[in-house]
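It would be a great kindness if you could assist me with a short task in structural biology. A protein sequence and the structure tokens that stand for its backbone fold form the material at issue. I should value your view on which stretches of the chain appear to form regular backbone elements. The record follows directly beneath this note.
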Amino acid sequence: MRALLTTDGSKEATAALRAAGRLLASEDRHIDVLYVAPEPHAPKSGKIAKRAYQHRAAAETRRILEEAQRTLKEEGIDALTLAETGSPAAVIIDQAEDYDVTVIGAKGSNVRSDVGLGPVASRVVEHANGCVLVGREPPGDRQARILVPVDGSAGSQHALDALSSFFNLESADITLLHVLETLWLPSHPEEESLGESDLDYQQASQVVAELRREAEQLLAEARSRVLEHHPAVTTSIREGLPGNEILSEADQGDYDLVVVGANAASDMKHSVLGSVSSKIAWNAPCSVLIVRVPE
């Protein structure tokens, strides 16, 4: 596994480094840590002024990378350091092509909001290929709790494969979740039908039962994909809007990581997770791994 860990020296970036250190698999891994300095705005005249500016910029780069190395060292990781200059999002997206996992903090040092993603993280999540880990506060000494939504799509299958390949599952508590979208079904027998083709309550109950059977089959198949790597896997079925239910489960279950697939599929049945992966990355209370299906 090749992992690119990014930093800008902010507390959010430091939290992402620690999360990566505790969640990523420790065997057969190569870790690089990258700092992208902003485009220089050195004085237009005066050699001494330009030289002083360059010296300060180089010192700041060294400081940020040395702090990142110390943080990773505390997590048992020896990382090589990389420094680039330019647009942070553009450089990270370009560099991500050569790595299996790219790690980024939810927000940068200049973002004042306490929620959501910063502009750099947002662009990386949207455009970077492969797996992007939005790192938030890492798990403590207890075993990590990992939530994996499953909808049977290529995205969720790739998410399960990424989970098994790149993460430390030996002591992890894993929950596979499927969300039934049943809000379009009538919920009471006395509910009036809007047309001859509308489902009545009895038919709706049969549809829900069939959807639940399909969900149980999907979860059983998903469980078999990770069973070899982790024999203790919990499955769960919830009803409602996928994005809302995944976030609710992530919050109520005190999870440390949510793993979601980002699908390119155009059919409605197999694009559920792809339509909500961004929402999860923005609003989850924990780290989120977005796994994009290769084109």
